[in-house]
Amino acid sequence: MEKINRSDITPSWLYMNRRQFLQKVSLVGGAAILAACAPGVIPTEEEEKIIQYDAPTDITSIKTYNNYYEFSVYKDRVFELAENLKTDPWTVEVSGLVENPTNFSMQDILNQFTQEERIYRLRCVEGWSMVIPWVGFPLAKLLEVVKPTAEAKFVRFETLADPEQMPGLTANFPWPYQEGLRLDEAMNDLTILATGIYNEPLDPANGAPVRLVVPWKYGFKSAKSLIKIELVSEMPATFWNLIAPREYGFYSNVNPDVSHPRWSQATERRIGETQRRPTLMFNGYEEEVAALYEGMSLQSNY
Ligand SMILES: Nc1nc2c(c(=O)[nH]1)N[C@H]1C(S)=C(S)[C@@H](COP(=O)(O)O)O[C@H]1N2
Ligand SMILES: [Mo]
User: Fold this and answer.
1) 96 and 130: one domain?
2) What's the gap in Å between 67 CA and the centre of ligand 1?
3) In CA terms, which of 141, 149, 266, 280 is 20 to 30 Å from 4?
4) Per-residue DSSP letters for 240-291?
5) What does the pLDDT look like over 221-269, one tens digit per residue?
């Protein structure tokens, strides 16, 4: 893979004020805020407050406060231990119940799929959150290329597990890290494969070179450093469900009304803040995803 030269990527984010930025990419603010951000429109004080409320988290926190158990269970140690992860060359195998199984090199992924910015909230099941300006593309675009067959009902994601490079693999967990989505969840426009943050390629600590991002689900669904995407007919096993099935279900939608067995999920601490704030249903993406779960009990399908 040709190395992305950081200086070749226009750091446009730095030159935009928050309002211009949100106008371009905001999914965090919703339709009213998008309107307020239209050219020439000065947001009301109330709207400005809402814009500030979900301001992107500072880049240092995003890069140095990480969950990535393959490296360490200590969030502040991951970035140092992961720093030298070899991400070039890199291949993502897309296989299983598809018409066109394909091995995508990282260069294929960057060439074939238009990269765009998406600012999303990230809510960890542990009770903290960030707002991350991702660069990436809808997973649906990749699935359209490989063409899932009629038998495909779920998508299984597998991530790198290399004992030579990942000191955390010595811990007794069911490696490799794996995750899953129902096919319609995977096809939802909010579901992206991310390749960057703040207009720069991902750091290893954030899941370089390509990771899943599913913003309405707890952060652990957003698997890092993907090596395989498999279309399957049955609900796949997932890393955290194998470890603690009563605590981490397959769906794991952010839901302030469904407590973790050991703590409430009603509030969260936004990194950079001291006060806790209310957690939003589906992490604030109810309008976009609630229909996926119509008629399902969100209590039993946790
Ligand atoms: N392969 C892998 N992916 C992973 C994890 C992990 O330990 N290994 N941790 C998850 C959890 S619990 C969270 S909250 C997010 C954190 O992503 P970030 O460090 O980029 O903010 O990554 C998720 N993806
Ligand atoms: Mo998490």
Assistant:
1) yes
2) 5
3) 141
4) HHHH-TTTS-SS-B--TTS-BTTB--SEEEETT-SS-EEPPGGGGTHHHHGG
5) 999 999 999 999 999 999 999 999 999 999 999 999 999 999 999 999 9
pLDDT at 68 over 90: yes
Q: What is the distance in A from the centroid of ligand 2 to the CA of 20? A: 30
Indicate the top mutation candidate among 59, 60, 68, 241 to test ligand 1's pocket, ranked by most ligand atoms within 8 A of CB. Answer: 68
pTM metric for this prediction: 0.91
Residue 129, Cβ density class (10 Å: 0-12 exposed, 13-18 middle, ≥19 buried): buried
User: How many structural domains compose the chain?
Assistant: 2
Would residue 5 count as lying in a domain? Answer: no
The reply to whether 50 and 67 lie within a common domain is: no
Q: pLDDT tens digits, residue range 189-228?
A: 999 999 999 999 999 999 999 999 999 999 999 999 999 9
Percent of the chain with pLDDT over 70: 89
